[in-house]
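Most newcomers find our protein records easier to grasp once they have seen one. A learned vocabulary of local backbone shapes supplies the integers on the structure line. An example says more than a description, so a record of this kind follows:
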Amino acid sequence: MFKRSLLSAAAVAIATLGVVALPSAAHATPARERTATVAADSQDELHPELDGLRIRAVDSADVYLVLDGKRHLIPSSVTYNALFRNTDGERLVLTTENITDGGPLMAYAYLARSTDDPTIYLVTNVSKREITSAAMDKFNFDRQKVRTTYPWVLAALPSDAPLT
């Protein structure tokens, strides 16, 4: 009974992390057919339950942040270090291809607040997103790395939906 519960919990965890099961050797298809199938199936798969996770495929050095159910490439270690406290909470998965690609974060994306307002924003892709206190922890953003800027700088950027 315990073994069955453990296997069920593992299956749920694997499904949540977006791991794709490959066909068994008896029913194996060529790699390019498997890749095409995964790509076709993943075009509209949003995973809002994964928001805030940083994921990396086993066979890749690329790290993605899941925002709005889509994966966004973190383009460099400079960008990564400007946003996050540490690498704790980074999840290793078999593939990231089954999560819709939302495009990369802007190089040098950063956290900001204005001199006259304590609200913290994620500034990336020429827009700003308010970050709630709960989202700061959920996304592992580093409060120590928030830049203080003039109010007109943030006011000039369009707002996207807040991160909660």
Summary: Residues 75 and 107 are 6 Å apart (CA to CA).
